[in-house]
Amino acid sequence: MGLENNKEAFDIIGDNHIGTSSETPMRDDAFKLNESEKIRLIKQDVQNIMNTLGLDLTDDSLKGTPNRVAKMFVNEIFGGLDPQKKPKASTFENKYQYGEMLVEKNITVYSTCEHHFLPIVGRAHVAYISNVTVVGLSKMNRIVDYFSKRPQVQERLTMQITDALKKVLETEDVAVVIDATHLCVSSRGVKDVNSSTVTSHFSGQFAQEQTKNEFLKYLEL
Ligand SMILES: [Zn+2]
Asked: How far away, in angstroms, is 57 Cα from ligand 1 center?
């Protein structure tokens, strides 16, 4: 993008929550360190932040925070950066020849805004039309959860879930809608507590008005 020396451009991208790619931007050496090495380094970094803020790290209440945050970053809220944690693709043959739309609504989304490292909280609604394979319903939750556990931009999260489902289900007929609140918008900055952001991706048959509308109707139920 050639923005290396343009700090202002970086700030504009971050402030406006514009993602730069549908892939999570990662370096080639992202997994050179193992999990415990990452936790050790991040612990020191959190200590530095707390020290700089003037917090007393000898206080019993704060003592454990750097290690707790480091473990939480690596194992939990950013655990989805690790491709080894990607949910395994266990699909079943579509024996019933169920060729109708399957909709799973209100899948909980807990993600993190990559521009502020504050939570994105919302719901994902996912649909597909079965081709040759079907998946267990919990698999859809696990795919949503895996991609949510990364520093994210909501548009990219929507795309990544869509692409993963297409691959697993061997069909283009996939739709994903995410309705989420960004704490960086509601708790700071413009402090808009009532707004939420809706992103969607409709592919294959869902790009057709009739199929798309049928799906959106189910979301109203
Ligand atoms: Zn943000």
From this structure: 28
Q: Is 76 labeled as catalytic in the residue annotation?
A: no
CA–chain centroid gap for 51, Å, is: 30
Annotated catalytic residue 4: no
- Percent pLDDT > 90 in the chain is 71
Q: Exactly one of 17, 115, 125, 201 is catalytic; which is it?
A: 115
Between the ranges 94-103, 112-121, 136-145, 164-173, where is the mean pLDDT highest?
112-121
pLDDT digits (tens, 9 = 90+) for 48-85: 999 999 999 999 999 999 999 999 999 999 999 999 99
pTM: 0.88
Q: How many CA atoms lie within 13 A of 61 on its CB side?
A: 2
CA of 18 to the centre of ligand 1 (A): 10
152 carries an active-site annotation = no
Residue 17 designated active-site: no
> β-strands 133-135, 151-152: how paired?
unpaired
Rounded to whole angstroms, how far apart are CA atoms 4 and 92? 47
| 97 carries an active-site annotation | no
